Batch of 4 targets.
Target 1
Amino acid sequence: MLLDQYLPVYDVRARYQTDLPAPPERVYSLVVDLDWSRSPLVRWLVLLRGMGSAKIKLIQNNPPGQGFTVLGEEPDRELLVGMAGRFWLPTAPLRQVDPADFVDFAGPGDAKMAMNFLAEPLPGGNCRLSTETRVQCFGPSARRCFRLYWGVIGPFSGLIRKEAFRLVRRQLAEGD
C-alpha cells in the first residue's frame, strides 16, 4: 500500500471498509470524483468545523496550506492524500509539504496525517473499499493536543468516511 510507504509509523489509526457490488476500477473512479457535499451530514460537519460549504471533493486545486495534498496514486486501486501542520487548531495554516518530502517531514510541534482509499477486487467482480487514516505527531505537546482533538473529532471523522461509502453505494445504485 502507498500508505505504508508514506506513513509507516503513526500514533493514531482509524480504518473503515465496505464491500460494494462493482469492480474496483468503477468504485475507485467514483471515490476520486466524489462530491462529499451531496451529504447533508458532511456539509453540516464541514460547516461546523469552519471549512466552508462549497462543493467538497477529495482532490481539488487547494490553495497552498489548505486542504489535502495528493501524495500518491495507483490508478484504479489506491489514492493517498495527506496534510501536515497543527490541524487541531482551527486557525493554524497547514504546512506546505511536497509529496517527495512528506516521508521525512517531522516539524517540531506538528503532525502529519495520511489517508487512503483502497479498492480491492473480490470474487464475482465486486470490490472491497477501505479507507485508513494515520497520524504521526512530533513531540509530546503535539501528541497531547492531537489526542485531545481526536477524542472529540475522531468519531465525526469516522462518520464522514462511512458517509462517503454510503454516497458511493448510492451512486452505484443510481448508475452514475
Note: Helices lie at 2-6, 24-32, 40-49, 99-102, 140-174.
Target 2
Amino acid sequence: MVSLDKITEIAQHCAGLAIEPGDSVIDATAGNGFDTMFLADRVGAEGKVYAFDVQDQALQITAAKLQKAGFSHRVKLIHSGHERMADFTSDQVSVVMYNLGYLPGGNKEIITKSSTSIESLEQALNLLKNDGVITIVLYPGHEEGYLESKEIIKYSADLVSNDYLVYRLQVVNRFGSPPELVVIKKSFS
C-alpha cells in the first residue's frame, strides 16, 4: 500500500505503474539507494537499472544495499551527473526517476542544479518509451531547490500536450515549502 504521507512513495507508485519485468529504467539520482532498490526489484532478474550519482559516497551506499538484496547484477552504477545519461545508454526506458536536491546525510553543498537537471530531462524524454513515466521529486525549501523547482515546473508545463501528460502534486496545507512531485507520461496521440 502506498503512503500518501511520503511523496517519494507516491513517486515510486507512479513509476511502478509503467514498469514490466525485463525493462530498462534509470535512477537519475541514486542518493541513498531507495529508488535504485525499488527499480531493481521491479525490473526483475532480466531487467536493467542505470543509476547515476556524482558522489562516490552515494554510490557506495547504494552498492551495499544492492549487494545485500542480491540485485547487483541488475544495476549499473554510474559515477557521473545525470545530464550525461545518454552517454551511458541508448536503451529505450520505461521509467526515469529523479529525487533532486542534496544527499540526505551527505554534503549539503553538493546539490542538483536546474541547468543540468533540465539537460538531463531532455535526454530522458528522448530515451523514454511511449507510455513511459518520469518522476521528479522537487525540494523548493532551500534557495537552489526553489530555483530548480521553478525551472523544472516551467519546462514540464511547456511540453507538447499531445505528446506528454504532466502532473504536479503538492501539499497545499503545510507550512514552509514541502517537497513536490512532477510526473511526466509520454503519451503520443
Note: The helical segments are 7-16, 34-43, 56-69, 85-88, 114-127, 143-157.
Target 3
Amino acid sequence: MKKLASNTVLCLQPVPQTIVSCRGKDGRNNALVVGFTANVSLDPVMVMVGIVPSRYSHQLVKDSGCFVINLPKKSFKKEYDYLGSKSGRDVDKFAALDLKWVDAKYVDAPILTECPVSIECSVVESTKPGTHELFIGKVEAVHVDEEYLDAKGNILWDKMDLM
C-alpha cells in the first residue's frame, strides 16, 4: 500500500547532474552546478534549466540570453563539487580549476571540453514560478565526444560514465 511522503522536496528522481556554463558581459567565463534541468519540447528542441536568482550566473544568463549545459563524467566529481560550492562573485572558477574549454559555436558561452556532452542553448523564455527562474533554451547544437556516437550520430548514453 502506498503512503503519503512527508518530504516532497525533490520528489522527482533521479535528476541529471549538470554544469551550466555562461559568460559575462566582461567576457569572463563562469560555471555552476544546476539541479533543475529537463527536456521541454521536441519541435523545436528545447530544454530548461532552473537557477536561483541570487546565484552569480543567474544574471549572466539573463544578460547574455544563452548558456551551455555540460554533462560531467564521474571522474569530474572534484571539479563538479567545487563548481557547486563556490561563487563566481568571489573566485574565477575557471582559473582556480584550470578548466579546459572552447568557445561554443552558436552561443556566446564556453563549452567544458572535459564533459562528454555539451548542449548550446539560446534563451527563448523565462519564468519564475517559485524559488528558481526557469530559463527555456532552444537547443542550437549538441556536442558529443566522438567515442559516444554510433555510425548514425546517435548518442550512446549507456557507454558514458556520467555522474
Note: The domain at 18-159 is CATH 2.30.110.10 (Pnp Oxidase; Chain A).
Target 4
Amino acid sequence: MTDTFDLIAEQRRRVAQCLEGLDDAEWETPSLCRGWTVRHVATHLCMSFVVSTPTIVWKLVKSGGNFNRISNDFARSEPARANQELVGLLRDNATNRFTPPGLGPDAPMTDIVIHGLDVSVPTNRTIEVSAEAYRRVLDFLVSPKASRGFVRPRMTKGLRFSCPELEWHSGEGLLVEGSASDLALALTGRRREEVSLRGDGVDSMRRRATY
C-alpha cells in the first residue's frame, strides 16, 4: 500500500502539469467548484504553502471550525499571483505534509483529487488518478469525517455506494452506482450534467446535495 502523502505528492504534480498547460482564458474559466474560477481553485490549493499552520488554526478557531469559509476567503482575497507562480508553488510543495486539524492525510488527498476534477473537466483536460487514490478518496467521502467541509451532513445515510471499476462498495440501503470520478463529484455536490449515476438511491442523494 502506497503512503498517502506519496499519493498526494503525485497528484499535486499532475494537477500542476495540467495547470501549466492552460492559457490565460482557461485560468478564468468557471470551475466545477461553485463560485470559483480555475484560478480560485489553484490559489486555494496553495493556501497551506503560504499561510502558516498556527495562522490556519487561529482562523479555524475564529470561524468556529469552518474550514470551507477559510478556504473561500483565502481564494478570493489573496493577491493575484502569476499563473506560473501558482504552478511552481504547487509543484515545489508537492511533498508538504499539512493536514487540517483532526482530519488526517485523507483530507488533502481528497482535496487535490476533487479540485483536480474541478479544473480539468471544464477545460477539457484529463488528470490521471490512480485506483488506489480513488479508493481512499471514496472511503473518506463516506466517512463521518467528511461532513466537516467535504460532504453535507446525512448525505450518505441509508445509501449503498458502488463503483464497479474499483470493486469498491460502502454502506447499506438504496443503491447509488457510478464511476469513481462521478461518485466523488456527486458526493461533494458538484454541478455537472455529465455526472452519470445509476440506482434507486440517486434521486434521494441528489435531493440532499447542493444541486
Note: The CA atoms of residues 154 and 208 lie 8 Å apart.
